[in-house]
Write a structure and sequence with these properties.
- By secondary structure, the protein is α/β, with parallel strands linked by helices.
- It is built from 26 helices and 32 strands.
- It has 4 domains: 184 residues, 3-Layer(aba) Sandwich (Rossmann fold), CATH 3.40.50; 82 residues, Orthogonal Bundle (6-phosphogluconate dehydrogenase C-terminal fold), CATH 1.10.3660; 224 residues, UDP-n-acetylglucosamine1-carboxyvinyl-transferase, Chain, CATH 3.65.10.10; 204 residues, UDP-n-acetylglucosamine1-carboxyvinyl-transferase, Chain (Alpha-beta prism), CATH 3.65.10.
- Helix 8 packs across helix 12, helix 14 runs parallel beside helix 15 and helix 20 packs parallel to helix 24.
- It is globular and about 90 Å long.
- The chain binds shikimate-3-phosphate.
- The site of shikimate-3-phosphate (S3P) has 11 residues, from helix 18.
Length: 757
């Protein structure tokens, strides 16, 4: 058997049987026979003498053998790049070499169906040789033949290997390395799974494309039709130009799996037909909006970004540099808390709710997706505009699977309350960070309401929520000041008989209460208690989402600490339960001027002008902590740039946010040569802001995938001596898409780097 080091290949011969698009591209990707080749030699065989001839002329191979048998004898690594149907002929030829023609060799194939190739080996050779690794590159082109090969055909494409129990792991490693050399990403799965996945994602689309083109082509006026069949038809049917013989083979070889997915598709197509016949616009919009959302997210999903993915998205880094002058007039994206609630309440309302200024961040998109999964038709978001076709208090349907809420704690906690009251069971899951966050705080009051919300993970997600429970109203004394818990109880309370009330130990954001009122629901607030009666109907309305003060906070601090700055932040939500950042910064001596105050949809908004200022350290009043709960990472940066000491207490909640925000900030600051004193519920920061000299050293900090930590350190760089590299920044998109672009527009220096490259 061959060794695994690349050097070994220099004494080896690669043999490719079948010199069409795939075989030819493998030869070219491996360097052809020219100087770049990784192998001692690349040899080929094709049943067509012309292809053999041309492959030598084109430099795909050094030479061709006159038979498969000769190639197998002379090559060490053999790729059978022949159509699935031709595999039998090739293997039968090989039996001229005895019962084990591939003994001591590494072999692989490229067929689109793995079950039938496996079966073919078993029937002709009695078994799948241990050195044979079944494989399938998910790459191709509608072009075929010896001239179609391209050295980069597999770059950034996936290759699926489907080893069986008896496959030699060393052979798998070698074939995986060959594909990696060709630029592909290698995945492994079982033969069955491969054939089912490919039936839906590749074979079915080809069938539909062939069929549609044929349907039109055989019509009398086909010329006329094709003349006007422009972009859409052309894009959709590109794959109908693929090799007919190969596809003929694939459908017959993968019959069962193809028929299953064809059956499913035919049913759905039938439903669409019926919807058109009966003018069922709800169904049509539902299918189209869900499909559009899924299609739009392909890119994000494939790029391994966080949306509907586990948090493997650690690759994006920010490199933020010093800046002296900031200025301009900007509007930051929509408020995250209000965006979530606009979808939730819009979905429960009667009628169509229109939303503008919606935050198109990953968290709010996760909420949209969850409601789409529960059968709600949601159009958009398109430049911040969303239309939610409400289904009424009792119109949600069971989702087909677990609801994946990404990084979003707000979605999970609020949905827990809402789903505890439904007639169906639900499962809520999230990414790595969300899976560590405490949910007992919502499970406890919901249990008191007779809901059943369970976790097998010590009160952490996934959460299993049982439906068909009769909820009863309660009075709940919040042990921690949390708007998420308050909102979860109020949403469950909408379904409970009688009046549900919540007492909060300190004021927390009241967007749920305000928005419920906007939807025509009576919610009373009396001091620290709010209450609502169950069973009230919500009526659709229009929602104008203000810019998020939590996103604006980064620029408030940025402009305050920059040596020269004059910046206007437009249309920022200044709900008094959110303005802790303004109050704290003013106590520190910041120059913030509020103008154009007005109210949109029950929420106060204003423009905020920020100019550079000499900040001073303060003891942060504990009463302001819940009102600035998300703003502390960037406030720590302000404190670092202030004169004197800043002391934060009563903020243990920061330890259970998307990361432990006290510790992670302290660790990052230390990396920048800025030690702090961490306490159990806060931090002490000795400011160094006696001059406009750099306050922080440059260096590398880890955001721990926490969006607000990543943005806070980007702000710190304004006053750093050298650039700061911030690791794991992809989650900035959860709350602030294009943060770096907007930051650059006011003079901040942030570059994005894909850490993998
Ligand atoms: C939120 C409430 C806050 C906040 C979060 C959003 C909300 O959480 O930190 O980013 O939209 O209700 P807690 O309620 O847990 O304090």
């Amino acid at each position: 058997m061959l060794g695994t080091t690349p050097q070994d290949w220099r004494n080896r011969t690669l043999g490719v049987v079948g010199l069409g698009l795939i075989g030819g591209s493998i030869c070219l990707g491996a360097g052809g026979f020219r100087g770049a080749s990784r192998f001692n030699s690349i040899i080929g065989f094709d049943a067509d003498p012309y292809a053999r001839d041309q492959s030598v002329q084109l430099g795909l191979v050094e030479r061709c053998t006159d038979s498969v048998v000769e190639l197998v004898q002379q090559a060490d690594i053999i790729i059978l790049a022949v159509p699935v149907k031709a595999m039998g002929v090739v293997l039968r030829d090989c039996t001229a070499l005895g019962k084990q023609p591939f003994s001591g060799k590494i072999v692989s194939d490229v067929g689109s169906v793995k079950g039938s190739v496996h079966a073919c080996f078993e029937s002709i050779l009695g078994e799948l040789p241990p050195g044979m690794v079944l494989g399938h590159p998910i790459a191709g082109s509608e072009k075929s033949g010896v001239f179609a090969g391209r050295a980069d055909l597999f770059v950034d494409h996936k290759v699926i290997l489907t080893p069986v129990d008896t496959t030699d792991p060393e052979a798998v490693a070698q074939i995986a390395r060959l594909w990696t050399l060709l630029g592909a990403e290698v995945l492994e799965m079982s033969v069955d799974h491969h054939d089912r996945v490919l039936a839906s994602t590749s074979h079915l689309p080809h069938l539909i494309a062939f069929s549609l083109v044929d349907t039109l082509a055989v019509q009398d006026d086909s010329l006329e039709i094709f003349r006007y069949a422009a972009g859409g038809f052309r894009d959709f049917t590109r794959i109908a130009g693929s090799d007919p013989v190969m596809w003929h083979d694939i459908f017959l070889e993968n019959k069962t799996a193809v028929l299953e997915s064809l059956e499913l598709f035919s049913k759905d197509l039938g439903r669409l037909k019926a919807a058109i016949e009966s003018g069922d616009s709800e169904r049509l919009l539902g299918v189209f909006t869900r499909a559009k959302a899924a299609r739009d997210h392909f890119g994000t999903m494939l790029a391994n970004k966080p949306y509907r993915q586990k948090m493997t998205n650690t690759e994006i880094e920010f490199i933020a540099g010093p800046a002296t002058q900031l200025g301009g007039s900007i509007r930051v994206p929509g408020d995250k808390s209000i965006s979530h609630r606009s979808i939730m309440l819009g979905a429960l309302a009667e009628g169509v709710t229109s939303v503008e200024g919606f935050l198109e961040g990953e968290d709010a998109l996760a909420t949209i997706q969850a409601f789409r999964d529960m059968g709600v038709v949601i159009e958009g978001p398109e430049a911040g505009a969303v239309k939610v076709h409400g289904v009424g208090l009792h119109g949600l349907k069971a989702a087909p699977g677990p609801l994946y809420l990404g990084n979003s704690g707000t979605s999970m906690r609020l949905l827990s309350g809402l789903l505890a009251a439904q007639q169906f069971d639900s499962v809520l899951t999230g990414d790595e960070s969300l899976s560590k966050r405490p949910m007992k705080r919502v499970m406890d009051p919901l249990a008191q309401m007779n809901a059943l919300v369970e976790s097998d993970n010590d009160g952490r997600p996934p959460l299993k929520i049982s439906g068909k429970r009769e909820l009863k109203s309660i009075h709940y004394d919040l042990p921690v000041a949390s708007a998420q818990v308050k909102s979860a109880v109020l949403l469950a309370g909408l379904y409970a008989e009688g009046v549900t009330s919540v007492h909060e130990p300190a004021p927390t954001r009241d967007h749920t209460e305000r928005m419920l009122r906007g939807f025509g629901c009576e919610v009373e607030t009396e001091g620290a208690v709010c209450r609502l009666r169950g069973g009230q109907q919500l009526k659709a309305c229009h929602i104008d989402v203000p810019a998020d003060i939590s996103s604006a906070a980064f620029f408030m601090v940025a402009a305050s600490i920059a040596p020269q700055a004059d910046l206007v932040l437009k249309h920022v939500g200044i709900n008094p339960t959110r303005t802790g950042i303004i109050e704290i910064l003013r106590l520190m001596g910041a120059d913030l001027e509020i103008s154009n105050e007005t109210t949109v949809g029950g929420e106060p908004v204003a423009d905020i002008r920020v100019r550079s200022a000499r900040l001073k350290g303060i003891d942060i009043p504990p009463a302001l902590v819940p009102l600035a709960i998300d703003e502390f990472p960037v406030l720590f940066i302000a404190a670092g740039c202030a004169e004197g000491k800043t002391v934060l207490t009563g903020a243990e909640e920061l330890r259970v946010k998307e990361s432990d925000r006290i510790q992670v900030m302290a660790d990052g600051l230390l990396e920048l040569g800025f030690p702090t004193r961490v306490t159990h519920d806060g931090i002490e920061i000795e400011g160094r802001g006696t001059s406009s000299n750099p306050v922080f050293n440059g260096g590398t900090v880890d955001s721990h995938g926490d969006h607000r930590i990543a943005m806070a350190f980007s702000v710190a760089a304004i006053r750093s001596a050298e650039p700061i590299t911030i690791r794991r920044c992809a989650n900035v998109a959860t709350s602030f898409p294009d943060f770096s672009g907007l930051a650059a527009s006011i003079g901040m220096q942030i570059k994005i780097r894909d850490a993998k490259s």
